[in-house]
Predict the 3D structure of the following.
Amino acid sequence: MNDSQLLRYSRHILLPEIGIEGQQKLLDANVLIIGAGGLGSPAALFLASSGIGTITLCDDDTVDLTNLQRQIAHRTSHIGKAKVLSAQATMFELNPDAKIIALQERATESRLEQLVAVADIVLDCSDNFPTRYSLNRVCMQLQKPLVSGAATRFEGQISVFDFRHADCPCYACLYPEQMESEETRCSMLGVFAPLVGIIGSMQAAETLKLIAGIDTTLAGRVLTINALTMEMRTIKLVRDNQCPVCVSHRTN
Ligand SMILES: [Zn+2]
């Protein structure tokens, strides 16, 4: 680290849990974020400001006026621009050191395999079940930690699936794939703006902890928050031995 980096990251370096060594791990890390909307915005901004070396952002959407109430990586002047390019510009302003790869595409499962293979950690900031299930399968196969977040109306949740551990539960253990899953998009139901900030920031926090080697993450637990009452709960999540995804994608 040069003098400017030592200053930029000094408040992390001061933390004994991170220190110089942990900060260097952040600088060397490669993180994949799927979705540059409500959750992806705060996650991407905090990961960029924290000095993650390489961040790949993947989203096929463009910035719309209705996004700006909560998708804080985007600016009014960015309306009509690709979300990944809009977020990239904001992240670059925060931290010109970060290498940010902007992919304006809706990744198929085979494409996700390519992207996840080169990433150390993956953040699911998507807004649809097909992507969530694909990411879950791919991260399980490639044994990459997955930090999954979701938010609608006033309700949010986050969990870490650390597939480096063989007994780790998966997203489909929590929400079986065959379950009738209603698409719960913000465009239909509404979403409280700071809630996506809370969950997306928590996703960034869990990612930084995983990279720095801090082992008190949400792995094996789901945290839910109701932003109306500000009640938070953590529920222990165990692997479902009947989960067809775990059964078909694991060798153990
Ligand atoms: Zn499972």
Q: What stands out?
A: The longest strand covers residues 146-152. The radius of gyration is 17 Å.
